[in-house]
Amino acid sequence: MDLKITTEFKVGLTVIIATLILIFGIIWGKGFQLKTDKYHISIQFDNIGGMVIGDPVTVNGVKEGKVLDIGWKDRMVVCLIELNDRIQLYEDATFTIISAELLAGMKIEIFPGKSSNHINLSQQPFTGKYGGRIVDVGLVIGDLAEDMSALSFRLDSTIAMINTMLRGGNLQKDLSASLANLTRLTAELNKLPNQLNSSMIGLDETLTRFRKLVDDNGAGIHSTLSNLDLVTAKLDTVSSSLKVVMGKIESQEGTLGKMVYDPSLYNNLSKTLMTIDSLAKKIKDEGLDIDLF
Description:
Layout: H1 2-30, E1 38-45, E2 56-59, E3 62-73, E4 76-84, E5 94-99, E6 106-111, E7 126-127, E8 129-130, H2 134-168, H3 170-216, H4 218-250, H5 254-261, H6 263-286
Parallel strand pairs: 1-7, 2-6, 5-8
Antiparallel strand pairs: 1-4, 2-3, 3-4, 5-6
């Protein structure tokens, strides 16, 4: 009887130990932890790439949480995640959705940041970005291949057009002529500094001679300038006198003023001229008969 109880006890104890080992293995394999020191964070994305509840959350590549819920806020997708309490996030932390595996599965990769200030949890939801999947990369490569094909077609067309132009012979001649003209222009430009240098030397010599001329004839030039000042003063005096005379003429003062503005003088002069003209005509026609004795 004692032997039977001992055997049953051993069998039962073995089963219990095996069950505990199995449970522990499942918990360890799934990443479950018995402690409940966790906190929640809301993150909004414009695209989550097929992420589902329960997908992992990693910090610098280490699994430290999971996705608890997925919802909407306006046009943004909001993911509620939980993180282990030991994870400290800072102001420059980033949240990126990337592929968890090669062909399937998504995860949220968190970079905790390098700032010295902790993140303000009251500003939730934080904004994350979608990093893409392997499938997305394939789609991008497909679009790129189409663009490359179109570019290759255009390149082939361009090369064919250039070959056609080269076979015509005109392009090569034009290019040769353009290069020859460019060579001549370069040579002329190379000569330009020498010509400018010669011109500057000539200008400097002219200025030197002019300076010497001024120095040698300084007294004469000074005297000429003084005479010019006197002439200018006399011209000013004459101008003033002329202004006075013109003023008197306009005001009909003096003989000249009366002669200019008196109409009777004009009439008398006209009559006199007419008489002289008549006398001259008579002399021309009849002659001049002078009897001195």
